[in-house]
UniProtKB/TrEMBL annotation:
Record keywords: Membrane, Transmembrane, Transmembrane helix
Highest taxon of source: Eukaryota
InterPro entries in UniProt: ABC1_dom (IPR004147), ADCK2_dom (IPR044095), ADCK_kinase (IPR052402), Kinase-like_dom_sf (IPR011009)
Record protein name field: ABC1 atypical kinase-like domain-containing protein
GO CC list: mitochondrion
Similarity remark: Belongs to the protein kinase superfamily. ADCK protein kinase family.
Pfam families: ABC1
Domain ABC1 atypical kinase-like: 197-249, 288-444
Membrane-traversing stretches: 122-142
Keyword Zinc-finger on entry: no
UniProt keyword annotation of Endoplasmic reticulum present: no
PANTHER family attached to this UniProt entry: AARF DOMAIN CONTAINING KINASE 2, AARF DOMAIN CONTAINING KINASE 2 (PREDICTED)
């Protein structure tokens, strides 16, 4: 009996290989476990066997594996290990003992080992955040700072302590801080501005782990067979994953061209390889430069434990009357859903695929194209998109403004492209990138003539390959980006040579889609604003928030909204600039003051507007979001009317209920017409 138990322990300690487990039912992540210590095959006592089995079980539990379910079949001999064959030949009573031991170990793992690890992590978190609780009295100390939303200096120090401790607490709490930074409707603006600066200090995981994940995703093929070049040093390390740059081998691209059609280029570039399509005989350009994103080991286990701790703490804090309106347990659940989406890299791949479909015919907006055929929960492989970080252009714009010099020739164009792309996400597609900070936006340059349909047809007739010199343009900008004066001169040359800017949006792991209720609320809110009915706007926000019974002074809130909307109306007819960012900041402060609990998706849209207008105004101080919305609203109103808004009109009442975007469009068009006429009259008066 002891011999069979020892044999069972040895069998469990062997490395798990995908090929070996091909005919077995598995719920696990696709990578191999390093081989642990294997004891000699000799009879041992039951206690020793159980102890070793427990050790083996601990090794498995400590690695990022899901529960493993084994099913034994009669005809697995060609793929089974010697221990599996021995187990199959064993008597039913012995197999029953082994299965009982397996269930016992699973029970110990679930109800004993994992709770212990959660408790250990909980104690660690308590020690980290105890100083924050102890230092609460300092929020009442110090003078108020008008430049920091009138917060006391002691309060600002306390916010800094929160940011520091969250950074030390690890990836999950860093993500929590970044998420909290977007909820200006719940937390003070000074705290949110600090939390938005949180960055991951996670050390990169070992390349040996990355190699196993990639090879398993490609069916066990060695890394050198797939890639001709693979940079072992990651180009980016985040809280839950890290990114590498690699180049697919031409022969691999040739043999897997049907799987790589998603990343073919319209024109030839240095990062593409020319391959003949077997069916049509046409020469296609397959993009071979890729980015490989690999999830950190143990990321799921760590996040799962941290979420349990957060849920417990949130439940306790929700007892406090002044905190109850925030609904912390619900917010933790929402945050948990967001984290689970990011822990499955297939979600990001699907989002990239959808964005590429939506912007397929738009040359000014680009999303990296994913290779869904080889994307798994632990690995995402996508086209490597070369570009200049938009922060370089923001720095150049700030330098120009500080010296009262003219900005770079493309700054206004880049700002317009960004706003147009976002407005299409919001109004047309209801599929919004939820992480639009400058780190996720890049700029590249292209020649529109290379992508013109007529040019492409003519090149095929003349058998002359069109080339995109965008990479050369990037090299020219890279060489001078540290000298703003030289950079402006180089950008002017690119414009003269016929280049245009294109925005690249990265990291689409999080997207916002407004459901029918939230979308209706959003449109109703726009309708009330378009009609300059501020009081109705305030009432709608209170009535349709998540906890209307907990709102403080709803009547005063509605009157404040009326005051804000009247100010917008006055600025509009005086042809002044309406700064949407300032407006939304004021509204978020009111929401927090009166405990108007908004839906998270709704707030995500607001935050995206704040970020985009902030970036746009740095590039173009005269940027007007409402003016930028005119062409998008015009197109949407025509499309929406053609689809059914006008078709549903049967009476005067139906006209009143027509799409709210028509009213918003009419209001903005009228505003622009007034502005244009005023400028013309001023010009005529001068002459």
């Amino acid at each position: 009996m002891a011999t069979h138990v020892a044999s069972f322990c040895v069998r469990r300690a062997r490395p798990l290989r995908i090929a070996t487990l091909k005919t077995q039912s598995i719920r696990t992540q696709p990578f191999r476990i390093p081989r642990p210590f294997t004891p000699p095959l000799k009879p041992v006592s039951i206690s020793t066997a159980v102890s070793y089995t427990a050790f083996s079980r601990f090794t498995l539990a400590s690695l990022p594996l899901a529960h493993l379910e084994r099913k034994y079949h009669k005809h697995d001999n060609e793929l089974s290990t010697p221990e599996d064959v021995e187990l199959q030949k064993a008597e039913p009573s012995k197999r029953r003992v082994i299965r009982i031991l397996d269930r016992v170990l699973e029970w110990l793992d679930r109800w004993f080992l994992e709770p212990l690890l959660v408790c250990r992590r909980f104690l660690h978190v308590i020690l980290l955040f105890a100083p924050i609780a102890i230092c609460v009295p300092i929020v009442f100390i110090g003078e108020r700072r008008p430049d920091e939303q009138d917060e006391r200096s002691g309060t600002l120090l306390w916010y800094d302590l929160i940011m520091t401790q969250m950074e030390r607490a690890g990836p999950t709490f860093i993500k929590l801080g970044q998420w909290a930074a977007s909820r200006t409707d719940l937390f003070p603006l000074a705290l949110c501005s600090r939390l938005s600066k949180l960055h991951s200090s996670v050390s990169p995981h070992k390349f040996s782990y990355t190699r196993r994940v990639i090879e398993d995703a490609f069916g066990g093929l060695p890394l050198h067979v797939i890639f001709s070049d693979f940079e072992e040093k990651p180009i980016g390390v985040g809280a839950i994953a890290q990114v590498y740059r690699a180049k697919i081998r031409p022969d691999f691209a040739e043999s897997h061209k049907e799987d790589l059609f998603a990343i073919q280029d319209n024109v030839q570039s240095p990062n593409s390889v020319r391959i003949q399509d077997d069916e049509t005989g046409e020469i296609i350009n397959i993009h071979t430069s890729v980015a490989v994103k690999v999830l950190h080991p143990r990321a799921r286990k760590t996040v799962s434990r941290d979420l349990r701790i957060m849920k417990t703490v949130a439940t306790i804090l929700s007892i406090i009357p002044t905190v109850k309106w925030i609904s912390l347990p619900e917010e933790v659940d929402k945050f948990g859903e967001m984290m689970q989406e990011q822990l499955d890299l297939r979600n990001e791949g699907r989002n990239l695929k959808k964005f590429n479909e939506l912007y397929e015919d738009n040359l000014t907006v680009m999303f990296p194209r994913p290779m869904m055929r080889f994307t798994t929960k632990n690995m995402l492989i996508e086209e490597f998109a070369s570009g200049i970080p938009i922060s370089v252009f923001l720095d150049e714009a700030r330098d120009s403004q500080s010296k009262n010099e003219s900005s770079a020739v493309f700054d206004h164009k880049i700002a317009d492209i960004g706003l147009d792309a976002f407005l299409h996400m919001l109004i047309f597609y209801n599929f919004i990138h939820a992480d639009l900070h400058p780190g996720n936006i890049m700029v590249k340059f292209y020649k529109p003539s290379a992508y013109h349909k007529f040019q492409q047809i003519w090149s095929k007739i003349m058998r002359r390959e069109l080339k995109d010199d965008g990479d050369i343009a990037l090299e020219r900008i890279e060489a001078v980006k540290h000298d703003h004066k030289l950079m402006r001169a180089e950008l002017a040359k690119l414009k003269d040579e016929g280049y245009s800017p294109c925005l690249i949006f990265l990291d689409t792991g999080l997207v916002t889609e407004l459901n029918e209720v939230n979308r209706r609320n959003f449109l109703d809110l726009f309708r009330a604003i378009a009609e300059f009915d501020g009081y109705k706007t305030g009432q709608l926000m209170v009535q349709r928030c998540r906890t209307p019974e907990m709102v403080i002074d709803p009547e005063i809130f509605a009157l404040k909204m009326q005051h804000i909307i009247l100010d917008i109306k006055q600025r509009t007819f005086q042809l002044g600039q309406v700064k949407v960012a300032n407006l939304l900041h004021t509204v978020m402060n009111m929401v927090r003051e009166h405990h108007v609990k908004l839906e998270g998706d709704f707030v995500n849209v607001v935050v995206s507007i704040l970020l985009l207008e902030g970036i746009g105004r740095q590039l173009d101080p005269n940027l007007d979001l409402l003016k930028s919305a005119i062409p998008v609203l015009r197109d949407f109103s025509i499309k929406d009317g053609a689809k059914g808004a006008l078709g549903r009109i049967r009476s005067v009442e139906d006209i009143k209920g027509a799409t709210p975007w028509l009213k918003v469009w009419f209001w903005i068009e009228a505003r622009e017409w007034l502005a244009t006429n005023t400028r013309e009259n001023e010009w005529l008066t001068m002459w």
